[in-house]
Specification:
Layout: H1 2-32, H2 34-47, H3 56-69
Length: 76
C-alpha cells in the first residue's frame, strides 16, 4: 500500500518535471527564434508545396537583411 503511494508520488513528480522541461524548451526556442524558422517551414509546405523552403541559413540571412533594411522600432 505504501509502495503504491510512493510510486504514484514519483510518477507525478516525473510528469511534473517533464512538463516543466517541455515548457523550458518551448520558451528557449521562442527566445532564440528557432520556432520562427519552424513556423516558416510549416507555412511554406502548406501554402507553397511546389517549392522547397529556404534552408535555416538562407532564412536567417533573409531575416537579418530585412531587419537591416527596415529597422523599425528596434533599440539598436
Amino acid at each position: 500500500m505504501a509502495t503504491d503511494a510512493l510510486d504514484q508520488t514519483r510518477s507525478g513528480a516525473l510528469a511534473a518535471l517533464g512538463r516543466a522541461w517541455r515548457g523550458l524548451v518551448w520558451f528557449a526556442r521562442g527566445v532564440t527564434g528557432e520556432a520562427k524558422y519552424d513556423a516558416y517551414v510549416a507555412h511554406e509546405r502548406a501554402a507553397h508545396p511546389d517549392r522547397d523552403p529556404m534552408t535555416a541559413k538562407e532564412y536567417w540571412r533573409c531575416v537579418y537583411r530585412e531587419q537591416d533594411a527596415n529597422p523599425g522600432a528596434r533599440c539598436c
